[in-house]
Amino acid sequence: MARDEPMSGRLAGDLATVTEQELKKLLASLRTEHRDLDAAIDALSGTGSTDQLQIARLKKRKLRLKDQIAIVEDQLLPDIIA
CB within 10 Å: which end of the chain, N or C, has fewer? Predict the structure, then answer.
């Protein structure tokens, strides 16, 4: 898996074939990367960086990670029909 898109192949395919342990490990990795991006965005914003394009790219990547996290969480927590 590429660092830029850690789940690109898995999201396109079927996550049902991935074990729960692998999903938990993937989820932890995605959350760590999301947290790291948040810190990087804060650092760039805090220094008064004029590189708004870089900040925008980091924010966009962070949103993609958030979506990926939601997909993995949905796989880990089955739907409960009441």
Answer: C
